Amino acid sequence: MTDREYWLYLSRVKGMESGRRKILLEMFGSAENIYGATEQELRNIPLLEDFHIDQLIAYRNTDYTKELERFERQGIGFVTVDDEDFPEKLREIPDAPPFLFYKGELPGRDVPAVAMVGSRKCSIYGREMCLKFAERLAGAGILIISGMAAGVDGFSHRGAIKAGGKTMAVLGCGVDVCYPSMNRDIFDTLSGVDSFYSRSLTGKKGSDKDNDDNGLHFGCLISEYYPGDKALPYNFPQRNRIISGLCDILLVVEAGKKSGTFITVDHALEQGREIFAIPGRIGDSVSDGCNSLIKNGAMMATEPEDIIEELKAKYTMLLAAEKSRKKGKKTELPEDEKKIYENLDVVPTQINEIAERTCIDPGILGQLLIGMELKGLIKEVGKNLYIKQ
Amino acid sequence: MYGNVKSASVYGIEAMLINVEADVSDGLPLFNMVGYLASEVKEAKDRVRTALKNSNFALRPKHITVNLSPADIRKAGTAFDLPIAMACLAASEILPQEKFDNMLIVGELGLDGKVNRISGVLPICIAAKEAGIDIVIVPKGNAREGAVVGGIKVLGVETLNELIEYILGVRELEAELGISEDELKGSSAEYVEDFSEVSGQEAARRAAEIAVCGQHNLLLSGPPGSGKTMIARRIPGIMPDMSFDDCLTISRIYSVAGLLNDERYLITRRPFRSPHHTCTVTSLVGGGVTPKPGEISLASNGVLFLDEMPEFGREAIEALRQPLEDRVVTVSRLNASYTYPAGFMLVASMNPCPCGHYPDRSRCSCTERQIRMYQRRISQPVLDRIDLCVSVSGIRYEELSTPKKGEESAVIRERVMRARSIQLERYKGMQISFNSELTGSMTSEFCPLGKEEKELVEKAYEKYALSARGYHRLLKVARTIADMSGEKDIKTPHLLEALCYRNIEVSGAMTY
Fold this sequence. Notes:
Structural class of chain A: alpha/beta
CATH architecture of the largest domain in chain A: 3-Layer(aba) Sandwich
CATH class of the largest domain in chain A: Alpha Beta
Strand content of chain A: 5-15%
CATH architecture of the largest domain in chain B: 3-Layer(aba) Sandwich
CATH topology of the largest domain in chain B: Rossmann fold
Distance between the termini of chain A: 58 Å
Oligomer: heterodimer
Radius of gyration of chain A: 24 Å
Number of domains of chain A: 3
Shape of chain A: elongated
Helix content of chain A: 40-55%
Strand content of chain B: 15-25%
């Protein structure tokens, strides 16, 4: 058996993510030695529970050469610390997994990476910020990392894909398991599957088959869990250390006071990553966490450029990134449109409220709103809910 | 001896004349009834015998045979009690047979000889008039309802004796008067709820007006307590007054359903039906062992309001698809199939999420998945039949404390009538009368677009990921908006406004 196969054997044992695997490796020296250890030797280690030992022994009967072949057929890659394309940044962190499964295309070396995290139940403001930041950052060539969860995670990926940039989803389950199922569009796109879902996200038509060869890849899915492993609740806090480990900057988009996001923030602090947070309104329960992060010393991100500037010191490639998207010549809006624009906000405003504030005839208001949206001045973010662009 | 009395029975909303024959001959005493009868008709035997006895007309102990013809059509209901009694008396030579020749009789008997109300008198009187019958005898409680038809003499009787005395010529019955023109006019404006009571909600009011102008279906979305129901309730009030024929058509349905009474003997107000979300398919579209019209038929020419549409059973909602398209509903049973009108305007309301407060995240803690699943509970085929969708905002305190008076229903109704008359003119001689009824091929004929407009639609088609159906809906609504402003052609502003009220597409919904 090759070293890769020994790693594969070790990766299959569940419940070893954090400290156990590392200590075990230190004790035995290599994965091969663990494979060769007798049951008695394993039993002597107080750290291992019975079910760990049962797994360690039972999994020796599998033909890992065949498993690797199977993964290859399924388009699942396997990369270990011994390989060159193992993510460089991950090597730096203390409890990094020694191997990763992936689907799609691993990012190259020396790519600036920003992890975007936040609440699964985000507000429309949070969603729009996600899309805005992810689109802009990914557009500038920055890799967007997130966890493909509902809410902020999902929109970060979608924003990056829409901008044609690269994104990486770190899963808490096997890379061939789509969890949550509503993120099928992201899952299919990143694993390079041409389906109804991926088309709805990338806007690519089924007939554009040729484009696939031209490298229309949007990034990858990665996981330390064996393919087929289910998404178990305690996998996710573990997965968060990889998210923060892979990035240069952790951006907290929207998080409440007691959000699970803070697990990632803690990991990032331990790993010495820079923390940015997008501020929300005071008293907005969904943004309480972000605001208190800023209060406690996190950097404040009010626009994507704040983050790009920070990364410029480290990555020369970003120097070329234009300062900010040049706004077209400021055209003077007609009076009614100006009135509408002035009454809008980043927080969605409902059409009836706009009618009341502006006193524009509702028949005309509808026309103006859609007209302004088609011009790109405003955006409808929900049924008859509008924000400033 | 032989006796013969005309009666009628209701099938669907049509009535059919039935001949009630009786024969009294020698033999063993027996009361026998034939003619494909439902059990409540067979039971008439006992009611008739006892009622006659208690009215001091004992039937002689003879061999009595009663036949209801045509004998191959099933007869149901209790309307045959009175004609059977009359036929028996005629056959017993107590009453002169020739008196019944130009008379139709319906009514249920009590054991004491009282004549009780029945349902379906209106269609029966209409059928009698069409058959050229001059006198219709109905229960007193149904007399006003029947008299509405006009042109025939409708006599209400309270007891069996009253009728017998009338036939014998010893008592006069006063014919019930039909409804006068003035009475009809006076009763039409009696909507208690007025649009002026809705404060704010400008866009929702506007959408409601557009919807009524073109008879489009409307979906109101918004948090609980924002006034969705309030708006929906006021929609019948801005519809044009119904013509007498319309009133008659609807009253017919109500008559069959047994919903008319002395105070409400003719439906002159546009109906507003709001079934509870636990209602069954049958109660919604009609049916049952003895078929009855459902809520959608009762809402004909008016509004069917489905409050909290996602809470309705999926089957009930799906059952709406065909009636929404055909504007009639056909209930098929073993014996016959009945067609009820279903020309209603659908107004539905929904919360944006299970708790109702999304996107206000300080109050809503629904997950993205829950929100999406909730919105998906209304199936796409049903959404495809809803042309307009508007969101209604929560009401703030200032609005409650200092309510702004909105436009009155009467003012809006004036505008609606203008827009509707344009449509009636345009679709003269065609099967349809409103923009919402335009089919795909008709839209290209009646909704031609200029160059600028075409470009806009193309842009919007891409941007909003419209479907082919969405495209047609857009044109239809734009047509209505153009009609409202009295323009001949659809212009850019009309299309833009129609886009503002476009329906939510399930896939897009509000989550992304």
